[in-house]
TrEMBL record:
Pathway(s) annotated for this protein in UniProt: Cofactor biosynthesis; coenzyme A biosynthesis; CoA from (R)-pantothenate: step 5/5
A GO MF term: dephospho-CoA kinase activity
Record protein name field: Dephospho-CoA kinase
Annotated residues for binding of ATP: G14, S15, G16, K17, S18, T19
Keywords: ATP-binding, Coenzyme A biosynthesis, Cytoplasm, Kinase, Nucleotide-binding, Transferase
NCBIfam families reported in the protein's UniProt record: dephospho-CoA kinase
Enzyme class: transferase
Family the UniProt entry places it in: Belongs to the CoaE family.
Annotated catalysed reactions: 3'-dephospho-CoA + ATP = ADP + CoA + H(+)
Described purpose of this protein according to its UniProt entry: Catalyzes the phosphorylation of the 3'-hydroxyl group of dephosphocoenzyme A to form coenzyme A.
GN (gene name): coaE
Keyword Ubl conjugation: no
CDD domains tied to this protein: DPCK
Subcellular location: Cytoplasm
Amino acid sequence: MSFKHGVVITGLIGSGKSTVCALLKERGYKIICADSIAHEILELNSSKVAELFGAQLLSGSKVDRKALGAIVFANPSAKKSLEELLHPLINERICFLSNELERTGKLYFVDIPLFFESGGRAKYDFAASLLVYAPKELCLKRILRRDKADETSANARINSQMDIEKKRALADFVLENTSDLASLEHDLRAIIEQIKTKMSLLDA
């Protein structure tokens, strides 16, 4: 399925995807957030999650995401089981929302943190991919500061994702987020213009 007006935003945890999405929203762009969709679908399938990982993960009908995260980040087979349950449903929702935005004929963005890890290029034909880049060491510092996490759990979360340098090699556009907000905004404006140029060439 082709989404010729959609651009995927991806990166490593702590690289600054949320900040970039907030800046894009300020500029009036529509954002589809895979994490928000995943949270909704997780709650809708809480009983199936309990069957897989135990009823202790439920508080009423709500899933304790922190406890679930501790399980899946530490156990690759548990992570695979969760992905097999949720990913098809998440993909279906992303495609539905992308189709809705395609009808506007305007540039929009799809925030998919695990785009490359989940074989996103085979699932979706978006116009381009945009990597929000920061070195692994800087991402770790940001997670420790932001989440008040211990270094072991923060590293586990980072190591559960594809190496940022590999993502950089796969991405169509790279947005450096290693300095201050003003630099990020300036570079984002420039990349948006590059993306629009590429899209206009594709439409020609």
